[in-house]
Every structure is written in structure tokens, then in C-alpha cells.
Amino acid sequence: MIKVSVMYPNSKDVQFDIAYYKNSHLPMISKALGTALKGLELDLGLASRVPGEPAPYVAIAHLLFDDVAAFQASFGPHAKVFADDVKNYSNVQGELQISELITF
């Protein structure tokens, strides 16, 4: 199992429409990826390790797939549509990381 994390860096100038992201963007992605998508989670940043400082990321979406090939095959054909939608909810591009998921 792999986890694809899309992390949106936080800053004083960041704009992020959580309602649009939750109610439009993520459902669009889920529908487009179909059964290749095994799970989807959204983290909304609350704080950092330093009291009073904002979270380093305003939001992080985690998408689960069986393997990298399944991610690439399902995501690739829709990548442009997904990227073009960013302007509808944020002024910052997400950073993408693919990780092997190990649970204990």
C-alpha cells in the first residue's frame, strides 16, 4: 500500500477555501480515480510544535493506492484537470509525496 500526500504549505499570505476543497475538489478526485483509490483522508492544520505558531501546512490530503503503478495509471489521465482546479480553492500549489505505508 502506498500513500500519496498532497501538502499545502501555510504562510501569512496563503488562501485556502476548505469548504470548496472538501465539497468539490476531493469528491471530483475520488470520482475520477474510481476503485484505484483505496482511501482518502484530509488533515487540516491547527498548530505547530511551537505554541502560538501556525501549522506548517494549511491542509494535507492523503490518498491510498495499492502501488505506485495504480496511482500513476488512475491519476495521470486527470492530472491537468486536477491542477487546473487549484485556482478555485488556493493561491498555493501543493507539494506531492509518495510514501510506502507501514502500519504498526
Secondary structure blueprint with pairings:
Layout: E1 2-9, H1 18-33, E2 39-44, E3 57-65, H2 68-75, H3 79-85, E4 95-100
> Main β-sheet, in a few words?
4 strands, antiparallel
Task: Measure the end-to-end span.
Answer: 14 Å
What's the helix-strand series? EHEEHHE
**Widest sheet: strand ordering:** 2-3-1-4
Please give a structural write-up:
The chain is α+β, with helices and mostly antiparallel strands. Helix content is 30%, strand content 28%. It is built from 3 helices and 4 strands, in the order βαββααβ. The protein has helices spanning 18-33, 68-75, 79-85; strands at residues 2-9, 39-44, 57-65, 95-100. It has a 4-stranded antiparallel β-sheet with strand order 2-3-1-4. The longest helix is centred in the N-terminal third of the chain and has 16 residues, at 18-33. It is globular and about 40 Å long.
